[in-house]
Fold these 3 entries.
Entry 1:
Amino acid sequence: MTFDDPTPLIGLEIHVALATDSKMFCPCETEFVREPNTQVCPVCLGLPGALPVLNRRAVELGVLCALALDAEVYPEMQFERKNYHYPDLPKGYQISQLAAPMAENGIMSFTDDDGGEKEARIRRVHLEEDAGKSIHLPGEGTLLDFNRCGVALAEVVTEPDLHSPADVRCFLEQLRELLRHTGASEVRMEEGELRCDVNVNLVHNGEGTPGRTEISEVKNLSSFRGVERALQYEVERHRQALRRGDPLTHETRHWDEEREVTFSARSKEESHDYRYFPDPDLHPVRIPRAMIDDLQERMGELPRARRRRLSREYDLSSYDADVLVGGGLADFFEEVVAEGSNAKAAANWVMGELSAHLNAEDIGIDELPVQPGQLAQLLDMVDSGEISGKIAKEVWGAVVQQGCDPRAIVEERGLSQISDDAQLESLAREVVEEHEDVVRDYRSGKEKALGFLVGQIMQKTQGKANPQMANEKLREIISREGCE
Amino acid sequence: MMTCDLSRLTLMQMRELIDAGEVSREELVRAALSAVAEGDEVLGAFLEVDEEGALAAARAADNTGGQTGGVLDGIPYAAKANICSRRMTTNCASYMLADYRSPFDAKVVASTGSAGGILLGKTNMDEFAMGSSTENSAFHKTRNPWDLDRVPGGSSGGSAASVAANYVPAALGSDTGGSIRQPASFCGVVGMKPTYGSVSRYGLIAFASSLDQIGPLTRTVHDCAAVLDALVLRDKRDSTSISHPDSGRFSESVAASGEDLRGWRVGLPREYLGDGIDPRIREVVRGAADGFTGLGAEVRECSLPHTDYALPAYYIIASAEASSNLARFDGVRYGMRTEGESVLDLYLNSRGEGFGPEVKRRVMLGTFALSAGYYDAYYLKAARTRRMIVRELEQAFSDFDLLLTPTTPMPAFGIGERVEDPLAMYMADICTIPANMAGIPAISIPGGRVDGLPVGIQLMAPRFADERLLRAAAVYERVTGDRGANPLCPGDVPTEGVCDR
Amino acid sequence: MDHVKQQAAYVARLAHLRLSGAELKTMARDMESILDYIGRLEELELDEVQPLFNPAAADDNVWREDETGTDDISDEFLRGAPDVRDRYLMVPQVVASDEVEGEDDDM
């Protein structure tokens, strides 16, 4: 690619904690716990003599990640040992993947802050186990907690296709939504379930003198804000370097959240010789086609694709599609429409009354005691004029409380809209007689006066009168009488 | 000094007495303990003996009354110091783990316990199973019961010696390149490495994961089969563990093994009878071949051309896996810690002081073989060589039921003779290594004498043909009658009256 | 010999083994002769041969269901650990200039 201006090339290495109940290679619990070194066993502690046994669900969830990222899942994968020493790595190696990963060559589309569509290629998605947690006490030492050690992770590596810190933030936010949608991970950021290393450099190879800086890697960022800020800092640092003609060095850096700077962690080019080799304790794992197909089916339609389809199929604005999909309301909405409702009416009601109710009661859509068919019925009654919009809201209130059919409520409470011609006529006459002065106002040109008269009819009928018909009747009568 | 009593009986003989109610388990344990007390200060087979625990277990079993029917009911046994046990330390004969207490039992300890076996003590070994003489133990040397100035072999030297000296009728060892079979040969006992994957490695402190297997050392083939019945089972905690089709039926198979080997085809690979083998041992093997012929088998020479490459390939693979398996010994969570100002110092100090020279050599070799730029030429090349060796053996087994070879190229050498020359030490494994590379079962049984010292002969069979191996070995043993007579009581053989099978 | 010693020193660093001057000298010598012997593998032409990493092959995948439940050995483990503070394990400071590799997280 040609970049006429110095352009950041940003690649990400994202570690996602998979939503398994137990760890990757042992039956220890993964649920977050406060007391250190309680969710541990010989395997995740790397005690002498312990051996790993793979968690099948971790493979399934990993495959889901890969499918969500449109990556090719290989029929066979192998775990390898990544050998290095660090206090939070009990075995002195991490079980990971290198030469035979789970999946490669995916792509993820995302929307940037301006609503533009962008893409980032996914180089690979593989499985590995997490290390423990280190807490550094400057001047004293390092505390170690192995509760997290051995948790199943999916590592997602992108190509350097991202070109701004803001884009990275958008990408990560949408990746999070994607992963949550598939159920592969709950991505609870506060529990470190998504951590990110970023690789960034600046390239300028178009017109004029080309230039580039060496890649710097910033490790272990665990909030989107942190990622964006660290990248903003880094990109600027690289820009200044490029201007000076300093290509920088290939190095690893850390982000200081407080001082808001990155600092060099290892200035030596001492490349990490991880001495990968296939883990002899674990045989190659076959991922059957049937598993992949089944997971693909269960994953269903991904959020982006669904937004587009809703917009197209139901002629909704992208904003509406966004709200429905983003709010988890799309399933319900589509079912209501399937029952025969007008899409726009259904969308409005779902985004409006229904959503408001969920918020007020602090419940999810699954806990709503209303069936899509019932809402469809309600909307139908409004559409056919059987009840007014106003009455519909009252009926809705009763339906969410009692969970019964709207029609039953209407009948029970006699809330049917009064659309009977004779009845309306007589009501109109009454009102006209009672409010001669207002009638005179209307005749003299004040349109609003009619509204008052309609309101009176509504009052007399406890809101049940069909307002359009009432309006028409009044006009009719007033004009008739005017001619006498 | 002679304790020619209960502890000299074979496992099967002890079982009979227990079953018949003629002896208690406590008596058997006491006999074992007193044999150890009398002789082990000189011999050095054990690193640790748990008198209290063993007696308590024996008494508890005695008190439940009646026979449990467990195949090892009441049998005192020893376990190599790299097999995790909650009782006693598990120290791999290394300073690195000098006081280490494992919070869990190895699967084999649990299963031998369930079968009624009573763990007496942990036996000496080469540090982290790296060695062929038990001289690499950080703590003390073990002597060969047949000649106290000679090595018992290694790395399961302590286990072999404990059986040869009649302390216990059975001991567990581990075999990565011959570490059960070679000491069995040097000590005149039976030692078997089962099919890779048939005995769980959960709780075996790993040396080389794709080569290690736990197996029995005993005085007779039937005893060996009995122990195997307790050891061979599928363990879901070990991903390399497989279900063996003959699990639980080895003893039965040996009991029904008959008097001859008519129709059996036995191969004699010529690469195992070359100049690297002591000519007297070649004689013993040829004598054994005649023995097999006498039993009705058809014995023919064959060729396994890649045999010579097995040793170098083995050393690369074993060292590479070991360098990774031993990375966890860093002073952080357990084991020896030599303090340092930084974590790096902690690692360097602890590992520098905790590991002996042979361990360091192998870790260095292994690290090198996996390092960038050398992985293809060393580790990968060795893995391809391994494939060739497997193919060759598979091919041979399409023509033969068994292969007959020496177990070791030399009889037990003198203490101190080879310990300064690593390569010379490595050469002790040339006959045993191929079986580990291929994951096939192999057994060493007493084959004869050289200068009064026992030498074993080795039989190898295809994967899962452990039962076949035991059957052939049992027939040979029965007919040739060389059962590795008790070196401490020369001329004494287990008495007739006590069920001679 | 110096080149071999240098290489040995590098490998020792990778393996986190402290070797004294004398040890390094012996080690370099031993390495040289061992590697010399092992070098005979070069006689084989095996590029077309698939490497074998484990002699056991599983027909079915070996894996377990996603169930929790371990024997709680955590207390025993902590009792045996060299330096424990409030259930955390303690090690000396990981110094930034350490050659110790690895991921570092300050959370």
Entry 2:
Amino acid sequence: MSHDEVADLLALDAVGVLEPSEREAMERHLATCEPCRATAAQYVDVAAMLPTALELVPPPARLRRNLMAQVYAEANATPALPWWRRLADAIPTGRAFTLVGAAAVVAAIALGIWGAGRGTQQGPVAYMVSGTTATGVLDVNSSGTQGVLTVTGLAPLPATEAYEVWLIPAHGSPKGVTFLSPGVNGGPWTAVMSGNMSLYKSIAATVEPAGGSPAPSNTEVLSGQLTES
Amino acid sequence: MHLSDDDIVRSISAHSPEGIEALYDRYGGLAHTVALRILSDRGAAEDVVQESFLAVWRRGSTFQAGRGSLRSWICTIVRNRAIDRLRGDRHRTRLDTPIEGETIEPAVSDPWAAVALELSGEEVRKALAELPIEQRQTIELAYYGGYSQSEIASVMEVPLGTVKGRVRIALDKLRASLADRMETPWQTQ
């Protein structure tokens, strides 16, 4: 198969219409032809420019929230990587593995293990939150990966609005993580969140349209610092 | 903190939730736009975007820098899943966007990554508009419509060989046009 014939197939593949019967020949050629692999990458990238011509339609905030809730839930259920895997991951790719570098990485991991061990011995932590009318507490588990927010004193909202909960890092934008749900028979409002709580400096809740907002509006109903007092 | 695409790839390969978060924050809007354009259904588009990013999370990144940019990789995953859904072919296994295994390579210097970041939608629209209409329609039927080569040939009432030729010529023209707009030297093949 000539380079020219392969280029036809690469272009078809880039826009997703390569037939299965054509793929084997194309892949066989690519396995031994560096110039055609470069051409393949170029066609793929040109095809990926096509969506740039579309008017961007931002996804609703709930999509990010649902996705990351699922990811963090699965992450928390996943066993930690073994030390040797973390050692391998910590080594910069493409660089020679020097003795000094190895020692530094091992030391860093050892400190990490020691630090993690200390962290797990601290037990759960409770942070106070408050607002004009609301008060509550955020209980974070011992590994700092899950939190339960319990709040009293919030007014009921119409169906078109929701209390959205935001975690706020020291640097960067607030992240909408969940919504407060009303308790039964006027009981406390609650929200469950997953994630690495140590990444965040404070927590807040605001009134947003049902479904959430990409950024908090100026309607804060409560806030609290995620630092131990 | 700004993460480069290389940083994001490394983070995903280390199975870090923050890697997926960064990938979504950078390309989630584009992914949603692609899925919505193909499916014309907000709920279905959201499902496809979530499934795509979860697949990357669960299987680990198999992004290979030599086969395109991170942007094109995630676009291809989303596009293929949306097309599969459009065709009602949820069980089809695509070979062109592997998300099994653990292969990972750091991104290398990629001129198209820069092009993608710097070119505006308006410039890409202009480049597309410069294509002869039959080439543009062929590309759109293929990329967004999920039509096969023979279906495109049938719809456009042209021989199959013409469809193959139009796709390649259109992409070559588009590449040259976009490179010109970037005013960067470009090596033609």
Entry 3:
Amino acid sequence: MTKPHFTPLQLLVHLAGWIPLVVLVFDLSRDNLTANPIQAIEQRTGYTALVFLALSLACTPLAFLGWKELTQRRKALGNYGFLYAALHVTVFVAVDYGFNLNAILRDVGNKQYILIGATAFLLLVPLAVTSFNYWMKRLGKNWKRLHRLVYLIAPLVVLHFFMARKGNFLSLSGDVLQPLIFAVIIGLLLLLRLSPVKRAWTRLRAQWLPPVKETSSSLNP
Amino acid sequence: MDSPFKSVPVQSSEITPKHVYLSRRDFIKAAGLLAGSMALSACAPNALEADSAPAPTAADPSIAEKTDELGDPVNSFKDITNYNNYYEFTTDKQGVAQLAKDFPTSPWDVQIGGLVKNPAKFGVEDLIKKYQPEERIYRLRCVEAWSMVIPWVGFPLWKLLQDVEPTSDARYVSFETIFAPDDMPGLKQPWYPWPYREGLRLDEAMHDLTILATGLYGGELPPQNGGGIRLVVPWKYGFKSIKAVVKIELTAEEPFALWKAIQPNEYGFYANVNPNVDHPRWSQATERRIGEIARRPTLMFNGYAEQVASLYEGMDLRINY
């Protein structure tokens, strides 16, 4: 950070970003991660990554409603999402499968939910890599285009979450409640970005809220 | 099989003698907090102090030293009683023990009927008296690719079935878990066709490895592990081993099975542990033994192939998964 001081929101974002990791390490040291700690770590880091992904997607619509500072926090939230996604994948590859590439490839190949999760993660990597200001400047307009990949990544992650639970997301039976909640939230956040919805929303905003100087392009990405 | 006892995978030296077992049951109620560290016989007199406290430790901690017939140690009492797949309480495996701690498991009645000559209702206490449960150390392989070695106390289901006399039309056995939404918060979730139900083919149910368990670690069966009484079928994925059974019915048709109903392409009626038939979510080729870091290869029929493979002779296990 080049800024001399943190805003309260900024502080909150960074606290929120590290607290899950601190709690995880604490629980690990206290042997409080169930009898199957590896799976518990995978589930918790995956869940945390999804939460941050949803939070980063919520910034733009909320900023549109007037909380403009959120657009400046979006990137940090996305990066924390990547941090937990990377931990999730690292534990899967290094601890769960002990770098056994054959076993990993077999499971990526024949288990759709792992394939979907792996795809989402691979798509997330370039976004994390280009999150530095250097790349933002260098890529110019293309940076925004590239980062629209998150509109694809988010549904993939929700699908991965659905399929990792014992249930059937087509008939909505089984252990589907939590994934369903995320599907609704992420779905809404993406829906708000569709241009007809965006136009309707801009009209509504003009009626109900004091005028905002920025153009509607602040909805991207 | 010539003798039903032939296939028991437990060394006769490992089976708890009846007199020890019976005195243990009296002791369990009494032992309470003291049970953890003291020898079995030494603390039996402490009945008064014990009644008020729950028993978070094994009734017979010395069982922790035992192994299954393949030489792998039994899992700790703590792991077995704090890592439970029991969606009637919660999907959080670690949370079941707390939510189930006041679940009443005694007295417990099981109704057995359907295509039998002698339908009846039994109390678990009567079943224990009649069939004299013994220790059975079994591997439990969950469909989620983790496994444990569990020292159950139970009796073979065939003994009970023999006594109620299935009619010649009976081909399957269906089992039903108690439906008690006031005590089981998970039942309020509308996403499942409760109550939990499972089934076996009659010859599977009559196999000597198939038991009704009434105890664990030399003690009673804790509610989070399926008390009052549960089924244990060690060569099948864990979800077949239905908990808290209140109803057993002999049927002519293949019975309803909850997970099969929800997701028929993933959960078959047979659900035999099989490293060669993959499940879309979890690797079935390997598993993690609770307490270990590295995965280990999953064994055909969970290591009970010698005893049970003949049940499926001529069947394509890829189709009948």
